[in-house]
Amino acid sequence: MPISVIKAYVKNFDKITIDSNTLSKYYGKLKGWLFTLFKFSILLGLSYIILGPLINIFSNSFFSSEDVYNPAVFMIPIKPTLNNYHLALLRLDYFSTLGHTLIYIITITLIQILITSMVGYGFARFDFPLKNLLFSCVIITIVLPTHTIMLPLYQHFRNWDLLGVFRLLGMKPINLLSSETPMYLMTIFGTGLRSGLFIYIFRQFFRGLPKELEEAAFIDGAGPWYTFFRIMLVNAMPAVITVAVFSMVWQYNDTFYSQLFTMPTDHILTLRLSTIQATLEFIDKIRDPMVSQLAVYAGTILIILPILVIYLLLQKYLVEGIERSGIVG
User: Fold this and answer.
1) What is the pTM of this model?
2) Nearest to residue 247, comparing CAs of 155, 117, 96, 88?
3) Quick check: 283 and 210 in contact, CB under 8 A?
4) What are phi and psi for residue 16, nearest 5 degrees?
5) Phi-psi sector, 194: left (phi>0), alpha (psi -120 to 50), beta
6) Which residues contact 75 (CB under 8 A, 6 or more apart)?
7) Cell wall biogenesis/degradation: is it a keyword of this entry (predicted)?
8) pLDDT tens digits for 162-214?
9) Which has the closest alpha carbon to 83: 64, 68, 69?
10) Which domains, ranges and CATH numbers included, belong to the chain?
């Protein structure tokens, strides 16, 4: 731009008028830019809060014993090693324990889907006496802290007697602790881990399906069971996948019930992780807790991997199911 033009522009700057539409346009752009910056800052902060500990664990899992006591090392190890993963795989008996864990949580998940979907369908479609009262009881199981019922649960399964039948026949109650049987029984009777929430999800989803589907099936001669399994449950697949993912993740991460019922540590991977530091101390003679903690970090990453893969494969259906079930409000 010629210098003479610039000088003329500066000389007449106070006489320049800006069109109101142009001003509004620039104001809108500035507002949008500031809002985008605000959203980015919020997401960045939340991501750091959530992912920060995980990134720290992942980084520390590659530390060597020299890196632990080197004050110059932060996040990136100077002498990275895979020895922590080798120890974790060995002392967790990873693949064998993972196999037992997957069989356990998949079985529990299938039972939970079957039971809670039937209960949710009943609440959504059928009228029966005390329906509202019974559904209120389901809601109570969602909000009631599990710690408040841990002692009754422990005593119940410590001296398990089905409706007093064993004592009536002169038999002693059965001790069901130190096994997975209490969790199977609770799941079968609709009181397993988060079963109340899953009943609520299915109820909300079935209420959103058109009644014409069932009416058409009834006209064609289908009974209630055929209609439920072949029509309604098939159309409720997003809710089924949502419940499946939630159930698998929560069963996989659960240590409350597994410790309460003293389940075998060689069957539950998360329980085994809680004992790995003591195992390293007594078998591998690693007395330094700072060094043995590195193997715990590696074991944590190994435990996260299977559930991360499940989530990545099913995240599309999980989001859809949550939106359609109404649990996001």
Assistant:
1) 0.78
2) 117
3) no
4) -80, 130
5) left
6) 55, 56, 59
7) no
8) 778 888 888 888 888 888 899 999 999 988 888 999 999 999 889 888 888 88
9) 64
10) 3-61 (no CATH), 85-325 (1.10.3720.10)
